[in-house]
Design brief:
Four copies of one chain form a homotetramer. The first copy, chain A, is mainly alpha-helical. The first copy, chain A, is built from five helices and two strands; from the N terminus they run H-H-H-E-E-H-H. Chain A starts with 10 loop residues before the first helix and ends with a helix. Chain B binds a DNA duplex (15 and 15 nucleotides) through helix 3.
DNA sequence: GTGGTCTAGACCACA
DNA sequence: GTGGTCTAGACCACA
């Protein structure tokens, strides 16, 4: 999953969400070490301050912990991760249904569009 | 459909999309009068310049035509409107599937989530 | 010669020039009757006030005269017409050479471009 | 080449064309730094917003690329620049021939006028 | 009254 | 410092 940041929108919320998704997908070993800000900033192609800001938000969400001696680690609170996953999913679904509903599609049409799309492409 | 503009994001793209959806849903009679810039700006609670920027984009898309000193009208090109509707729908679906896929859900789970959501709520 | 007015520029100077060219080309019999403002406005697709404004300028240039009893007539001063023709031509040439020169073309290239263009098309 | 903006006409299209010509003439090193909006606005004696409008159009044409927080650069796409040069030249020639033709000059006369003019002045 | 242009100036994210 | 967005408000041509 590339970073694909939209330069026209604030970067740090995009980064925050990007990393949250990575954690939720289990790309980082829970309770273990996390890349450095420097590495992450470089990977995302943003300034370290921007990455810092995103990580701060992730700490506030409890997904990432800073430990003086160990450094930054991913939370090992699996319940929190699961909850985050569900709430992100809900947000995506809600936003999507709202937007596509605004176009005037009925429920059945929406399901059909999705099914069609899922068959077309490999994601 | 209220304007529901997110103050933290650029306003004109939100307005542009909002109006595009209204046109696509058929809320304006094709080929007929369109609210004035001043009226729309007031309705959306933004400055006239901001509304004008959004309308400029809609004009570039061909959805709206400007007749200096008379006012604007919605295009009567139904094919263009249908096309716009499809491309918006595609964008929403693609973005949604990408985002929700990033969380690690399988195709079946996605369909189930949507179905569940559609039953829960009346939209 | 259609009117081809550019809606993004002030109309009356365009109209003024358009009519001046018609006079210079000899489309109106010198010293004789001239279409009414109403007719001209309709032909050009503009408001009568706008046409009025353009005609006022043509009167100032001396190309058109208003006579209480006869109405508006084209001047019969052929020297003035010839002079207008030359000055318009000079303006067009000067503007053109300036603009095309700004692109970085040499004199020879300019001549070649024109010759090529003149052979291509029938004007 | 001074800016020579005509205060009676919309400024931003004039600015757009002015800068396009500069790029086409090779006054900016391709792929390299471009003056800042603020600097250009100051140089042209217009407001920053007006300059920004012109630059937006140049970006749409692909002549200029924007790198948020870094600044702008001129495209390094030489084919695009050459194409732009040709299309500008064509527009100038077409407009000129149309206008001068409207005065009633024959092809030969037009060529003669140009040649005479080119000999008179050093441009 | 309609749309278009322009200015001055504030505020923001990012590097 | 860089570009982007937004507002308030003035002024203009045209109908």
């Amino acid at each position: 999953m590339a970073w694909e940041l939209d330069d026209n929108l604030p970067l740090w919320p995009q980064i925050k969400e990007h990393i949250a998704k990575k954690i939720v997908r289990g790309e980082y070993s829970l309770g273990e070490d996390f890349p450095t800000v420097r590495a992450l900033a470089h990977e995302a192609g943003v300034n370290r301050n921007t990455m810092q800001r995103a990580l701060m938000e992730l700490e506030n969400m409890g997904l990432v912990l800073t430990n003086r001696t160990i450094g930054r680690i991913v939370t090992s609170d699996e319940a929190l991760i699961e909850e985050t996953k569900k709430s992100l999913a809900k947000k995506y679904v809600d936003d999507f249904l709202k937007e596509i509903g605004n176009l005037g599609y009925s429920r059945e049409e929406i399901i059909d569009i999705i099914k069609g799309d899922l068959q077309d492409e490999n994601r």
